[in-house]
Amino acid sequence: MTGLSTHVLDAVTGAPAVGMSVVLQDAAGTELASGVTNADGRIPEVNGEPLVAGIHHLVFDTGSWFADHSITAFYPEIDICFEVADPDRHYHVPVLLSPFAYSTYRGS
Q1: Are β-strands 21-26 and 3-10 bridged in parallel, bridged antiparallel, or unpaired?
Q2: Domain map of the chain by residue range?
Q3: Are 107 and 7 in contact (CB under 8 A)?
Q4: What pLDDT score was predicted for residue 1?
């Protein structure tokens, strides 16, 4: 399996962050793909093809998601910059989200 997936969890409620828009960009800021988190807070396949080696950005529209849920928050977006070293691998970028903090890690 190659490509990119993501998962967003609302760390305050423990529930999936359903309906969050996410954009994949290359290092120059060109949009490569986009999607919206599903009922499980996931986008199982952000892009349909293997990523090319290099720097990428996964940008989460947290501002709109918080506004849609009437939540005052500090981060209008989360831009996770990551490097693809092996295009033959699958990359998973999960996010734990709260109004005033977030964390991420390289998932499996």
Answers
A1: unpaired
A2: 3-104
A3: yes
A4: 57
Which residue bears the tokens 């734990």? 96
May I ask the CATH architecture of the domain 3-104?
Sandwich (2.60)
List CB contacts of 56: < 8 A, sequence separation 6 or more.
4, 24, 25, 26, 27, 32, 81, 82, 83, 84
Task: Show Cβ contacts of residue 28 under 8 Å, excluding neighbours closer than 6 positions.
Answer: none
Q: What is the pTM of this model?
A: 0.95
pLDDT for 54-101, tens place per residue?
A: 999 999 999 999 999 999 999 999 999 999 999 999 999 999 999 999
The string of DSSP codes covering 37-102 is --TTSEES-SSSSPPPSEEEEEEE-HHHHHHHTT---S-S-EEEEEEES-TTSEEEEEEEEETTEE
